[in-house]
Design a protein that fits this description.
Number of strands: 8
Shape: globular
CATH class: Alpha Beta
Strand content: 15-25%
Helix content: 40-55%
Number of helices: 9
Order of helices and strands: HEHEHEHEHEHEHEHEH
Strand order of the largest sheet: 7-6-5-4-3-2-1-8
CATH architecture: Alpha-Beta Barrel
Bound molecules: pyridoxal-5'-phosphate
Radius of gyration: 17 Å
Distance between the termini: 27 Å
Low-confidence stretches: none
CATH superfamily: Alanine racemase
Largest sheet: 8 strands, parallel
Number of domains: 1
Mean pLDDT: 95
Length: 233
C-alpha cells in the first residue's frame, strides 16, 4: 500500500472515531483531500485508494491539475478553497465543481456570469471569518445573511453551506468556541436557506474538534499528503 493510501486510511479512522465520540454517523462527514502544491501523481495515488473529492487553493496551479486529471479520465469532484481574486474567477468558474471560499458579492457575481452554460451550477459555500483576525478572509457573521440572500438569487450558483478556518492557536477552547458558534449560525441559516447542507470546518490539526461541533466536511492536506513545500508552489 502507498503512503498516501495508508494516510487516507488513518484519516478515515480518525474521522470515524471522532464521529463515534460525538454520537454521529461517520457517513455524515465527507473528507476533502487538500492537494494544493502537490503533484498530480499524489492525486492519482489518493484516487487509486478511492478518494474522489479534492481541494485546491491556487487557481492557476489548480486549473492545470484539473485539466490533466480530466484528460486522464479521473472522475473527481473539485473544490476551490483558497482566497479568490477577481482576475482568477474565470479559471475557477470553468474548472471547478465547488467554490467553498466565496466571501463577497462581487466574486459571487463574477462566478455566476462566468460559469459555462454547459456545466451544472457551481456549488458554493460562504467563508465566514470566525476568528475575527483581520488578515483572514471570510465575511463577517453580521453580513453573512445578506450575502446568502444575494447568492441564492444567482441562477448559475447553488448555495450549499458555510466554510471557516479556525484561528491559528494551540488553545483548543478558542477553536471549540468558534466552531460551535459557526454551527449555531449554520443551523439558524438553514431555516431560511434549505439548500444549505454543508458545514465545512476542520483541518489536520483540528479535525476532532470540528466533528464534535457538527462539521459535515473536513479539509485535510498534511495528514494525507505530508507537509507542503511552498518553494515549488
Ligand atoms: C491548506 C488548507 C487546508 C488543509 O490544511 P492541513 O492543515 O494541511 O490539513 C484546509 N483548508 C484550507 C482552506 C486550506 O487552505
Amino acid at each position: 500500500m502507498s503512503d498516501i493510501a495508508h494516510h487516507l486510511q488513518q484519516v478515515e479512522a480518525q474521522i470515524a472515531n471522532a464521529a463515534r465520540q460525538a454520537q454521529r454517523s461517520p457517513e455524515e462527514i465527507l473528507l476533502l483531500a487538500v492537494s494544493k502544491t502537490k503533484p498530480l501523481s499524489a492525486i492519482r495515488e489518493a484516487y487509486a485508494a478511492g478518494q474522489r473529492r479534492f481541494g485546491e487553493s491556487y487557481a492557476q496551479e489548480a486549473a492545470l491539475k484539473v485539466q490533466a486529471a480530466k484528460a486522464e479520465g479521473l472522475d473527481i469532484e473539485w473544490h476551490f478553497i483558497g482566497p479568490l481574486q477577481s482576475n482568477k474567477t474565470r479559471l475557477v468558474a470553468e474548472h471547478f465543481d465547488w467554490v467553498d471560499s466565496v466571501d463577497r458579492l462581487k466574486i459571487a457575481e463574477r462566478l455566476n456570469e462566468q460559469r459555462p452554460e454547459s456545466a451544472h451550477p457551481l456549488q458554493v459555500c460562504i467563508q465566514v471569518n470566525i476568528s475575527g483576525e483581520s488578515q483572514k478572509s471570510g465575511t463577517t457573521e453580521t453580513a453573512v445573511f445578506d450575502l446568502a440572500r444575494a447568492i441564492s438569487q444567482l441562477p448559475r450558483l447553488q448555495l450549499r453551506g458555510l466554510m471557516a478556518i479556525a484561528e491559528n492557536t494551540s488553545d483548543e477552547r478558542v477553536i471549540q468556541r468558534s466552531f460551535s458558534q459557526l454551527h449555531d449560525l449554520f443551523v439558524q441559516m438553514h431555516e431560511t436557506f434549505p439548500s444549505m447542507d454543508t458545514l465545512s470546518m476542520g483541518m489536520t490539526q483540528d479535525l476532532g474538534i470540528a466533528i464534535a461541533n457538527g462539521s459535515t466536511q473536513v479539509r485535510i492536506g498534511t495528514a494525507i499528503f505530508g507537509a507542503r513545500d511552498y518553494r515549488q508552489a
